Amino acid sequence: xxxxxxxxxxxxxxxxxxxxxxxxxxxxxxxxxxxxxxxxxxxxxxxxxxxxxxxxxxxxxxxxxxxxxxxxxxxxxxxxxxxxxxxxxxxxxxxxxxxxxxxxxxxxxxxxxxxxxxxxxxxxxxxxxxxxxxxxxxxxxxxxxxxxxxxxxxxxxxxxxxxxxxxxxxxxxxxxxxxxxxxxxxxxxxxxxxxxxxxxxxxxxxxxxxxxxxxxxxxxxxxxxxxxxxxxxxxxxxxxxxxxxxxxxxxxxxxxxxxxxxxxxxxxxxxxxxxxxxxxxxxxxxxxxxxxxxxxxxxxxxxxxxxxxxxxxxxxxxxxxxxxxxxxxxxxxxxxxxxxxxxxxxxxxxxxxxxxxxxxxxxxxxxxxxxxxxxxxxxxxxxxxxxxxxxxxxxxxxxxxxxxxxxxxxxxxxxxxxxxxxxxxxxxxxxxxxxxxxxxxxxxxxxxxxxxxxxxxxxxxxxxxxxxxxxxxxxxxxxxxxxxxxxxxxxxxxxxxxxxxxxxxxxxxxxxxxxxxxxxxxxxxxxxxxxxxxxxxxxxxxxxxxxxxxxxxxxxxxxxxxxxxxxxxxxxxxxxxxxxxxxxxxxxxxxxxxxxxxxxxxxxxxxxxxxxxxxxxxxxxxxxxxxxxxxxxxxxxxxxxxxxxxxxxxxxxxxxxxxxxxxxxxxxxxxxxxxxxxxxxxxxxxxxxxxxxxxxxxxxxxxxxxxxxxxxxxxxxxxxxxxxx
Length: 725
Description:
By secondary structure, the protein is an alpha+beta fold. It has helices spanning 17-20, 25-36, 40-53, 58-70, 74-87, 92-104, 108-121, 128-143, 147-160, 167-177, 201-212, 216-229, 234-246, 250-264, 269-281, 302-311, 386-397, 415-420, 432-450, 464-467, 474-491, 497-503, 537-550, 553-565, 575-585, 589-605, 611-624, 627-641, 645-657, and strands at residues 289-298, 315-317, 335-340, 357-366, 375-381, 406-414, 422-425, 684-686. The chain contains 29 helices and eight strands. Strand 4 (357-366) and strand 5 form a beta hairpin. The relative contact order is 0.06.
C-alpha cells in the first residue's frame, strides 16, 4: 500500500507521518505489504530490526505487539504489548492491544479496564485496534456468562463495524436466538434520561453523553457521584445498573437493580418487576435441592424376576442398546425398563390426567458379577413419589428380590425443577389435539395447584400463595411470576398467566393500552401483550421484527397471525416466511408441519420456489421418523429443486445433520439418528425452569423425543428452517 505523508501512522498517535516519522514511510509500506501477504514471521523479523534502529518508537513497538498477538505466542505477545505500553502509556492503541491480550488470557476485569482506558485516551480517531478489542472483550464476557456485558460490547462494535464485517451483528443474533439464554438477558441495556425536576441536570446529561459513547467507566463514576446526593433516584440507579452490567460487574449491578426496583415499585410497578426479575436471574439462589438416587435391591431368582417384569404392564421394556450402559468396571445390564405408576392406556378414548401413565423412573437389571450379587436398580429423583415407586417395584418383583434397599446418591437437582417436569407414557394412537389438551391441563394443574404452594427462598421461605398475603413480598412475588412466564414463552407453554396473577392478586399481564405505546422502545418482556389488531401497519411490522430478532415465541405468533390477516399488507410481506416463523414457534410438531405446508403453498402463490420450505419439512419428517413421507419429499426435491443453489445447500446440510451423507458428499446409509425405540414412542416429557445455578439449556419443552427418566442427554431438535444457518 502507498503511505501518504499527511496520513496518520498506524501506531495510534494523533500526529501525521510527516511530523512524526517521515523517515519510516518506506518501512511502513513494506510492513503493510508483508501483512497483506500474510508473511507474518518474516514481517516480525523485519520489525525487530526496525526496533533496533528505533528502540522506543511507537511504530515498530506497535507492529511488534500486533504481530506477536497474531502469531498466538502468549509469552512473547505479553512482553511485546507491555513494552509498547511501558514506552507509550498514553497511546490508546497500546491499551487496546493490552485489552485484547488480557481478554485472551481470561483476565476479565483487567481487559475491561484497559479497553475503557483506551477509549478515554482517544482524542480524535478511533484506532482499529479498539474495534478489535471490543470483539475480544465481548467474547471473553460471553464465555464467562456475562451476557449483558457481552451484548453491550458487541452492540458498540456493531455500530462501528465497516460494511464488510458483519461478525458483531452475527454474535448479537446468536445471543438473541440462543434458547438457553433467558429473555431478560436479550433486552438491550438502556439509559434513562434526566428527570425534569432533577437539579443537577447538566452533570446528569454529561454523564449520559459519556456513557452513550462507550465511556462506561467514566459515566459510571459520574452517576455514582450524583447518587451520593440522591441515593434513591430511579433514573440514576437505572443508569448505574446498566453501566455496571456493561462493565461486567453483574453481581454489583444486580444489587443496584434491586435497589432501583424497590425505589420504583410505587411509581411503575411493572418496570420494577422487570428489574427485580433480572436481578433475580443474575443472583445465585440457594433453592432447595433433592438427590437423584440409585436404589439397589439384590436378586434371588433372575429368570423369575425377568418374567414378572415381562408380564407386568407397569414395567415397560426399553429396546435400547444395553452395551452403551456398561463401563470399564461394570458390565452392561441384562434389561432396561421404565417403571410406570399404572398400566399404559391402549387408546386415547376418554383419556384424562387421572388415567395417564406416569413414568416414575428407570429400572436396570444386572446379572451376577465377580464381586457383586445380581441386582435390580431403580434410578429417580428422590421426590414425593420416590417411596411409592420403590414399593411398587417391590410389588412387581415379589419374592424374586430381597426387600432390603441400598441407596446411592448420583447427583442433585432443584426441587422446583423436579416439580415443573413430568414424564408420561401416552397411547401410541393418541391424537395431537388430545395430547395438546392434556399437556395444557397438566401445566395448569402444576402451576395453579402445586407451584403456588411451593416454598421459595426468594419469598423468605414462603409459598407464592402465602406471599400474596404479605405486602412486603409483592414485588419479589411478581418477579417470580414474570420469570416463570418468560420461561413459558421460551418453552412454548400453553398457559394463561393471567389466571395465575389473578389467583395471587397481582396486577398486569393483560393487553397494554395503545395510547403512548412505542413498539420500538417497549421492553421485550411486554411485546406479546401489545394489542396487535390496533397497531398501524408500520408499528405491526416493527413489533413483529423485534419479536423475531429476539426469538420471542409468543410475540412472534401473536404478530404473525395479525400480519396474515392484514389485507393492506398482503402484497408487502413474505407470507411464506410468516408461516415459517409460526412453524418455528409451534408447540406441537403436527401444528408445525401444517404451517410448513402452508409456507410451501404461499411460496408457490408468490411465484417463488417452495424448495427451502420442503427441506424444512424434510427435517421434521426425519425427526418424527416418518420415512415414507420423507422419501416422497426427497424425490420431489431431487427432481424439481436440486438445481436451486440455496435449496441444494440446505438439503445437503439436513442430510448431513441426520447422518445420511458424509461431509464429503458420499451417501452414508442408515436411518437418521434419534427417534423413538422400536417398541413405540418414548415418554412424553415437559417442563423447563432456568435458574442462575443451572445456566445450561433448560429441560426440553413438551416433545415426543424427550429422554426417558433417569438419564440421557437432552434431545436436540433436528428441525431446520430457512434462515437458521
